[in-house]
Amino acid sequence: MPTQPAKKDLAAQAKSTRHGPPPAPGTRPAKPVNLYNFWTKEWLAIDAAAPPAPATINRFLRDHFTNKPAAMEPRLVAMLLAAASHFHSDVVDVVSGFRHPKYNLILRKKGHQVARDSQHTHGNAIDFYVPSVAAQVLQTWAKAQKLGGVGLYPESGFVHMDTGPIRSWSGE
Ligand SMILES: [Zn+2]
Known about the structure:
29% of the residues lie in helices and 20% in strands. The chain is α/β, with parallel strands linked by helices and 172 residues long.
């Protein structure tokens, strides 16, 4: 008989205890929120009770053009989770997180509506939508959070949120 537990048993145990104790009887376990990155086609499931390490979140929200991550403002991810909860969705689609200054410049040269010193280049902004929620409805919710800037892009169907000064605008 082996005296050490098999590696696969340890892995199974680590997996089963990773999310902490099971919920009390009669309560529903918190559903994870699944973030989807439009550019990288990656998914990141976030369990609010056991959130992933910042490095995992930063990697998920990296600039897709240079493939470089940055330290993302944690209040933005909290906003994604809050939006998912408010609109009873287990999916939130991320259109843009960190934007490397190099990529930001390319977008500007292509004539996109991008600020020169965009909050995205500082890891302080996120563009997202919640499936089946109209961007205008999401914008109203986002403004009520009073986090900072809120931009509505009705044609593209997403909302921008940043941690800069409180202001709002509408794009295309
Ligand atoms: Zn944005």
